Amino acid sequence: MKKFRDIAGYMLGGVLFVVLLPTIMWLASGMPALVHIGALRASVTGALILGGLALSVWTIVYMKRRGKGNPMDAFDHEIGSRTQHLMTDGPYRLNRNPMLTGTFIYLFGYIVWLWTWQALLVWIIFVAIMIVQVLSEEKRLRRDFGEEYEAYCRRTGRFTP
Hints:
Blueprint: H1 2-28, H2 39-66, E1 73-74, E2 77-78, H3 98-114, H4 117-155
Antiparallel strand pairs: 1-2
């Protein structure tokens, strides 16, 4: 059952963040053609999408190996297994939420690709929801890891180094 929940958590995250949100951005933008955006925009888009995905995947793999858990924990509802260890190195030395930072960067690549205010608005709404989620998660981390987490917060930014 635990393995099923972990797989379901990864699949849910992948569908939500990698497929559904870019699709919503595209639909909200009026379904523009996705070709012929010019070399500069295509390069920036590619760098943002690939860089964001790389950071998120690195974090997920690291979380599974080092933290022995799954990133799907939404608004204090455990979807997959929660991490057993506070992670402060690897991608977590960059900031406290590297997977989410990677997702923000990845989705910002779609803003550059679509180049519409509607895509930007979807991104802003998503970021706002995720900030609320992070604040909820921080309460749980304080409860689970106490002073160790407090010390980590003092030396590491929420989304920036």
